[in-house]
Specification:
single chain, about 300 residues, alpha/beta, Rossmann fold, 4-stranded parallel β-sheet, 10 helices, 12 strands, about 45% helix, globular
Length: about 300
């Protein structure tokens, strides 16, 4: 006997096949809704952390990022909409007060799992007596950050645990592959002497066997004075360095006039990944950073 479905003011006779199809559709819709509800709202402070997080959440959700390209993490001046976005996080991933000044006060009041990168068992270096906060510039640290995030995601969203685990494995493999590519691109044994404006790249440099001759400042908020610039000039000339790695905000024309060194090339490298496209991955970002550094090699060869 055919089943009967009651709907509104009419009665519709339904065959077993129709009932089965309706049941299958309803079950699929239920599972879809469970998956949607299971999505964990991951919010990150800066773009590089968002790139790492998106590797782990791929296929489930897209992490949000608080600070925009024009915002300095040292002086973020959060808008109400950004504070609201943080308050809606279920997982908040940031570096620590050594980078995102003032975030600690907001993070302490969040009803979320807060992952502070500087409190993870990372490979840490120091600058000026304090932990260098640019931890994402190490492929090894990126993997450890991804691992911590995958663990918390699995705790909150066990339905997608296998997907997070697979994403973490894939991310680890990508990191290993790109470590080889970057090592080959930079070739530390033959890399020419160079200087950096802001001493922010030691995680990247150490991993790939590089070491700058000198830097202008350990804190990009503090501009170097004339005495410091003259000290840097003497070191650059003594090392025959022909390249300086600079942040995008540095006035290279002013710096060139102060140094007065002929055939000196300024190469821009952005450790915060400002202006990256929406499809950029973490490994794309790191490969781009390596390409920027490799421009110093090109300049040295041209000057010889």
């Amino acid at each position: 006997m055919a089943g009967v479905i009651y709907h509104s003011s009419f009665v519709l006779a339904a065959t077993p096949d129709v009932l089965l199809n309706r049941f299958t559709f309803a079950l699929a819709a239920l599972l879809f809704n469970v998956t949607v509800l299971a999505q964990v709202n991951v919010v990150t402070s800066i773009r590089p952390l968002q790139l790492i997080a998106s590797e782990i959440t791929q296929g489930v959700s897209m992490p949000a990022v608080i600070l925009e390209n024009s915002q300095d993490p040292h002086h973020p001046a959060l808008r109400p909409s950004q504070r609201q976005q943080m308050s809606e996080a279920e997982i908040f991933l940031w570096v620590g007060p050594g980078l995102e000044t003032g975030f600690d006060r907001v993070a302490a009041n969040l009803d979320a799992a807060v992952i502070k990168a500087l409190e993870l068992p990372l490979h840490l270096y120091h600058v000026g007596g304090q932990p260098d906060p640019h931890v994402w510039l190490s492929l090894a640290n990126a993997g450890l950050i991804g691992e911590a995030l995958a663990l918390e995601l699995t705790r909150q969203d066990p339905l997608n645990a296998a997907l997070y685990s697979n994403n973490l494995d894939r991310f680890s493999n990508k990191l290993a592959e790109h470590e080889e590519r970057i090592n080959s691109l930079l070739d530390a044994d033959t890399f020419p002497p160079y200087a950096v404006y802001h001493d922010a790249f030691q995680y990247f440099e150490t991993q790939f066997g590089l070491s700058h001759e000198t830097s202008f400042t350990a804190n990009e908020e503090l501009q170097p004075g004339i005495r410091k610039i003259l000290q840097v000039k003497n070191i650059i000339e003594a090392a025959n360095a022909k390249c300086i790695i600079v942040n995008p905000s540095v006035n290279t024309e002013f710096l060139q006039n102060q140094l007065g060194i002929k055939d000196l090339k300024f190469v821009e490298a952005d450790q915060l990944g400002s202006g990256l496209g929406s499809e950029t991955t973490y490994t794309d970002f790191m490969l781009g950073l390596a390409s920027s550094f490799s421009n110093c090699r090109n300049n040295n060869q041209a000057a010889q």
